[in-house]
Write a structure and sequence with these properties.
- The chain contains one helix and 14 strands; from the N terminus they run H-E-E-E-E-E-E-E-E-E-E-E-E-E-E.
- By secondary structure, it is mainly beta.
- Strands 1-4-5-6-7-8-9-10-11-12-13-14 form a twelve-stranded antiparallel β-barrel. Strands 2-3 form a two-stranded antiparallel sheet.
- About 40% of the residues are buried.
Length: about 220
């Protein structure tokens, strides 16, 4: 099984948390951004080992908590486009976010190494938080014969630093691993992070991955 995209797969919005938590609802109704990073850091893996990552997003958010958007990026051997819609809010100090993500990998003639050309995958994302702690579950739908899979994260934010633990529960042999990630937001635009995977039983790099990401808002 190619766990790089668990037979097959991918997501992430930029990096903060992740690659790895459900998107934050913006106060503005429409927003857009452009980001440049030295790698596509996705759940403890580098999906662009041969070069940098360039990504962009366009988002709509309603005061009720409903949001939707599109995010696109390059990755090794091709490109990825994510469509998402969700609802987020807070009640009694408890924050919640429920969303649906649909990932597109259009065939572009470059014969992606992971075999994702001309495919589509999806996740149901459930997130809940209290104070500075957040728990998120990414529940993969059984598309294109892939195994049942859940990716989950537990993260804690203190000031400009975010500590995150991510792990897999996959219904397939050799498909599980975990990683620890530390992110530091130097400013609203510049972020540094380091991620270390637990082992390479799923073919995941064990050496620390260092990321530098710079984002530019295209709207106010």
């Amino acid at each position: 099984m190619n766990l790089k995209k668990y037979a097959p797969y991918a997501v992430s919005l930029s990096l903060l948390s992740a690659g790895l938590a459900a998107p934050t609802v913006a106060s503005a109704e429409v927003s857009a951004s452009l980001s440049l990073a030295n790698m596509y850091l996705w759940r403890g893996q580098n999906l662009t080992p041969d070069g940098p990552q360039i990504s962009g997003s366009l988002d709509y958010a309603h005061d009720s908590g409903l949001y939707a958007g599109i995010w696109a990026t390059n990755e090794t051997g091709g490109h990825e486009t994510d469509l998402y819609v969700g609802f987020a809010g807070e009640a009694g100090g408890f924050s919640y976010d429920v969303s649906y993500w649909y990932y597109l990998y259009p065939e572009d003639g470059t014969a992606p190494n992971d075999g994702l050309g001309d495919t589509s995958l999806s996740d149901i994302v459930l997130s809940g938080g209290m104070a500075d702690f957040t728990v998120t579950f990414y529940i993969a739908e059984e598309t294109q014969g892939g195994p049942d899979a859940i990716y989950y994260t537990l993260d804690y934010t203190i000031g400009d630093v975010n500590l995150l633990y991510g792990g897999w529960d996959v219904d397939a042999p050799g498909g599980e691993y975990s990683h620890v990630q530390v992110s530091y937001s130097y400013s609203e635009n510049l972020t540094f992070a380091v991620s270390v995977a637990s082992d390479d039983t799923a073919g995941v790099e064990e050496d620390p991955l260092f990321l530098v990401s710079y984002s530019v808002p295209l709207s106010k």
